[in-house]
Amino acid sequence: MDRGIIRVLVAKMGLDGHDRGSLIVTQALKDAGMEVIYTGLKNTPEAVANIAIQEDVDVIGISILSGAHLVLVPLLFEALKRNGAEDIPVLIGGVIPSPDFPKLKSMGVKEIFPPGSSLDSITEYIRCLKSEKGGRK
Amino acid sequence: MEENKSVNDIVKKIKEGHVRSIAKLITLVENHDPISVGVIKHVYPDCGKAHLVGVTGPPGVGKSSLIAALIREFRKRKKSVGVLAVDPSSPFSGGAFLGDRARMVELSGDKDVFIRSLASRGMAGGLSAAVNDAADILDVFGKEIVLIETVGAGQSEVDIAKIAHTVLVVLMPGYGDQIQALKAGMMEIADILVVNKADKEAADATATDLFVVQGLKSKRDGSWAVPILKTSALSGEGIEELVEAISNHYRFIKEHDLLTKKNRERRTREFLDILTRQIRDEFMEQIEEDQRLRQWVQKIGDLELDPYSASEQVITMIREARQRKIGKETGPKPEAAQES
Amino acid sequence: MFDRKTLENIRKVQEEWEKETLRERKEQFTTMSGIPVKRVFTPADLADRSIDFMKDISFPGNYPYTRGIHPTMYRGQLWTIRQFMGFGDPRKSNERLKYLMKSGAPGLNVAFDLPTINGIGSDHPLARGEIGRDGVPVNSLEDVEELFDGIPLGEVSTSLVIAYPPIPCMYIVVAEKQGFKPHQLRGTYQNDSICRDVAANVRVIPRRAELKLCVDLVEYSTKHMPLWYPISIVGYQIREKGCTAAQEVAFTLSDGIEFVNAFIQRGLDVDSFGPRLSFMWNAHNDFFEEIAKYRAARRIWARIMKERFKAKNPRSMQLRFHTQTSGVSLTAQQPLNNVVRVAIQALAAILGGTQSLHTDSMDEAMALPTEEAVKLAVRTQQILACESGVTNTIDPLGGSYYVEWLTKEIEDEALAYIRKIDEIGGVIEAVDTGYIQKEVTKAAYEYQRKVEKGEEIIVGVNDYVEDGEERKLNLLEIDESFERYMCQKIEGLKARRDRSAVEKALDDLRKAAFRDENLMEPTMAAVKAYATLQEMWDVYRERYGTFDEKTHLHGVE
């Protein structure tokens, strides 16, 4: 049984064009045995939510380096909620000033990975999330 | 029973068109979860309305963009569309980069388009074992067209032909070696040949080459003349004609009684695949429990036992094991004691 | 450079000297880009690479310009301090421009925000949350007027980090209103659509259409703006994406080749635009590698312009460039460390002979810089210029056995890539087929792995880590007030302006676009009528279509 294979959505929202981080993370997650759906650039929060649902991902990884996170992340959660998918954990990576961490967490973001976070820490965190969920229902 | 309750719940949700449930069900299918088997058994009789269209070809020819263009055209004609985009799993890590979705992002908001990326998870033919069931689920969900995208990996691409009613083989101009690779099998499965990126210079030349190699007759469907179409997914050129050709092919196979034949072949093939897999899974389970089996596998590896003999012995063992189980459940039978 | 006997002797002694296996800290030492580095370099190494003083090194201001493009370099004129800036709204950015000029940073260098770069207005749905975050928002001529209010454009040198006609036209019109003619203006447009595309992932219209607009700008500029550099061919961004130093050189110069070809195809003589080409490089961590990189780039480009494009004017062969210190090398952890990093990177750029320089501020790993932080960045350059003595002579590292060897090494590697891209059919083709993206993603991933294995150390991040509170810096805040202000402005503008004049101008622009004419003059007319940026861009999009983001390849395997 392939119970353990983790599916991750790596998405970029808004006009931000920096994708070095998201491409590296995608590669790392793939090398760690996960199936990564990469959406490319310039996605609206609504599109990201829809994709997460259709692909039934275990976790949504958002990369934002433009500073627009405080505007776009709430829109993402709204879209997830509208479609009954607010249980999908959301992680954020990118240039996020630490004063914003508590705000994001209160919106529902599970964890934030600022620059300097190791790829292994991201991979491990996702694995823990999945095993906490206790396998697939 | 608990399981039955879940199965019924899920079946209800699918028929209601609840997207999240469908997505989760496909995941269960991918994981060979018994609940999904229960659901499939339930909905199986309702299958058969969707037109399954396979889209294959070498990497880089623009299959995903072509599919996006096809979806738009189908949607103009008010058809409900499903897409299964299959990408290879890494043989080393088991992970996969599922990037086809990125080409279809704008369609994510359309309620009548359902796109799912699948990793091949060790299947050699470039397809995922889940494709059959996933296609059935989308069928029952109400999708009139189900596009199945796979990477043409040279010789092993024929699997798509065993599932799809219509197979599109997509190529690109000026891709010199591809004609060679095609002779290996891809040409034979094509119902429609598409030369994408037709805005490139060599498009006409490639189309001509293909015409020569392909000849006039289809290898699959007798009198169906395989059309060679030029498209440009970016500009939209040729897409309407392609959709027409796809509809024409479906009409053709229905009129010539080939649809039933194909479905039959698909289901038979599916049955054998499932059977093989279940037997193999059963065997793997037995290895866990039976030390004898483990030793055997070792003997094969050490060249002490040839695979044929081993296989024959294993089949015997499985029979025995089953008999033992039956014996446990119903009490010892006189014959059981004579089995060794 | 050395006679055979001397070389033989050197080699003999070196062999003796290397006989004993001595313990070193690592198995192998490499540059940041992965070039293996020997313990010591000697004249024999130069001889082995056939490096010839007159042919390869020569004098500053002499072909192939390895040592610098001017005979006097910083002894004649120091590099321009040109700090990249732009945020909030035009008023805020105007304040910051004046602040920088007051602090002794005379080169203006303006960034535009993401919606502006993408050709959409501040009131567009996709602009939500993005206004003024990493550049100035500009919706119309009004905004550029506000941006340069009180700054006489004929007396400054301005770099506009933007491509395509609208904003350059706005700049020219504002200058005219101030009383300055186009031929008096000094500065640069970035105008490098290829770099924008591949490295910054900014794609609005299809690639070849973007190139056409780029050529329009250059054609106009060549005729009307003799003091202006209408293009800055950029390597900074792609290096930030993670490629190696040699790749930075190769991909950028291949870019340059593509542009030169396009300009020639338009009918421009190579020597008419050659002297007005400029480049932009990254200044990254590996000190000597960066210096060698700049030298190699100059040498390669000089030869390309002379031999491949048959330029006659020496100024066409001179690679003049601006440098920006690497943003991605800055850390959020222990931000004061960044001051040191930037100083070293800036020094490398100076020893590499840059014409202008931007130094990052210490807080830029987390936000746009505060006034205090940017001032320190400016002072860094001033201290290097005035106190370090490195400007007393030109190309002081020329002749260093290591640096000359490394220059040749990078040159050879870059040339191999350039050849490969030529084979593929040029840089746009290489991008369409994903070749460049693949190479860059691969290099970036390998580097990241090295960092995580501890093979590459980042102080404060994977070594010398401090737990607990990171130093609290006062960070620059961008809030929604900018968005509201800009949206209000657009509303007000649309109410005030002459509707029919705008529509006529846009219509003329549309006709010119469909006739494939140079779009500078028609755009300028639309700008004068106060058409909005988005309105002009919508016309471009009508003509050329929108870039299909979905077809872009990302290079993940």
Could you explain the architecture of this structure?
Chain A is an alpha/beta fold and 137 residues long. Chain A has a single domain, classed as Rossmann fold. Chain A has helices at 20-31, 45-54, 69-82, 101-107, 119-132, and strands at 7-12, 35-38, 59-64, 90-94, 111-113. In chain A, strand 1 (7-12), helix 1 and strand 2 form a beta-alpha-beta unit. The longest helix of chain A has 14 residues, at 69-82. Chain A is globular, with a radius of gyration of 14 Å. The model of chain A has no long low-confidence stretch (mean pLDDT 88). In chain B, 50% of the residues lie in helices and 12% in strands. In chain B, strands 4-2-5-1-6-7-8 form a 7-stranded parallel beta sheet, sandwiched between helices. In chain B, helix 6 links the parallel strand 6 and strand 7. The longest helix of chain B is centred in the last third of the chain and has 32 residues, at 258-289. Chain B is globular and about 65 Å long. Chain C is built from 23 helices and 9 strands. Chain C has helices at residues 4-19, 43-48, 53-57, 73-76, 90-102, 114-117, 141-147, 166-178, 193-198, 207-224, 236-240, 245-265, 270-273, 287-308, 337-351, 371-387, 401-424, 427-432, 435-453, 480-496, 499-514, 520-528, 533-544, and strands spanning 80-85, 107-111, 157-161, 186-189, 228-229, 231-234, 277-283, 321-325, 356-358. In chain C, strand 1 (80-85), helix 5 (90-102) and strand 2 form a beta-alpha-beta unit. In chain C, helix 21 (499-514) packs antiparallel against helix 22 and helix 21 runs parallel beside helix 23 (533-544). Chain C is globular, with a radius of gyration of 24 Å. The mean pLDDT of chain C is 91. Chain A binds chain C through residues 14-20, 23-24, 26-28, 30, 38, 40-42, 44, 66-72, 75, 95, 97-99, 114-116, 118-120, and chain C through 114-115, 117-118, 125-130, 133-134, 200-202, 240-242, 328, 331-333, 365-367, 441, 444-445, 448-449, 452, 458, 461-462, 470, 475, 478, 480, 549-550, 552, 554-557.
